[in-house]
C-alpha cells in the first residue's frame, strides 16, 4: 500500500495531474465509479498552495461531466445510459430514484452531490426525469463546489498534519475510504 500511496502522490504532483483530476471528475459525473476525491485529496496534500485551483478544476470537470450525464439521461437514455446502468446493476434503484427525483430533484442533487455516492446516477436521473437543466447545473455547482472547496480548504489549512497522519495510518485511512465508497454503493442500491 505504501508504494501505491507514493505513486499516487507522485502523480498528484506531476505536471499532468490537473488534467487527470479534470478527467476523473468528468468521468465520475457521467460513467466512472471512482470519485474525484481520489485525485483531489493527494493533489491538495502534495501542493496545498494550489488547493483552490484544484477544487475549481474538479468542479469544472464534474459540471461538464454532469452535463454529459444529463444528456445521456435526457436524449440517449435507451441507447447509452441503460447499458451503463445495467453494467453497474442499477436498473431497479434507478427507476425508484427517478420517481423520487421528479418530486425532490433539487434536494436530491444537493444531498447526493455532497456525499460519496456515485454522482453519475444523479446526473443521468436528472436528464431522464426531464429536470430543469439550469436548476440542475446551479444545484450541482453548489453541492459539488461546496464539497470540493471544503476538502481543498481543509487540506490547504491542515495539509501537512493530515499528510503526516495519512502516512502514519495509511491502512486505516484507505480502509475508511474504501468503506465509505462501498457504503455509498450499498445505500444507492437499497434506498
Keywords:
9 helices; 83% helix; globular; mainly alpha; 191 residues; single chain; 0% strand
Written overview of the protein:
The chain has 191 residues and is an all-alpha fold. The chain has one domain (2-190). Helix 2 (17-28) packs antiparallel against helix 3. The protein contains 9 helices and no strands. The radius of gyration is 17 Å and the shape is globular.
> pLDDT under 50 segments (min length 5)?
none
The figure for the number of domains is 1
Number of strands: 0
Helical content class: over 70%
Secondary-structure element pattern, one letter each:
HHHHHHHHH
Total count of helical runs of at least 4 residues: 9
Q: Report the mean per-residue pLDDT as an integer.
A: 81
Class based on secondary structure composition and strand pairing: mainly alpha
The proportion of residues in beta strands is under 5%
Q: What is the gyration radius calculated from CA atoms?
A: 17 Å
Largest sheet data: none
Shape: globular
The end-to-end span amounts to 33 Å
Summarize the structure.
With 191 residues, this protein is mainly α. It has helices at 2-12, 17-28, 37-46, 51-75, 77-87, 91-112, 119-128, 133-168, 170-190. The chain has one domain (2-190).
How is this fold's topology laid out?
Elements: H1 2-12, H2 17-28, H3 37-46, H4 51-75, H5 77-87, H6 91-112, H7 119-128, H8 133-168, H9 170-190
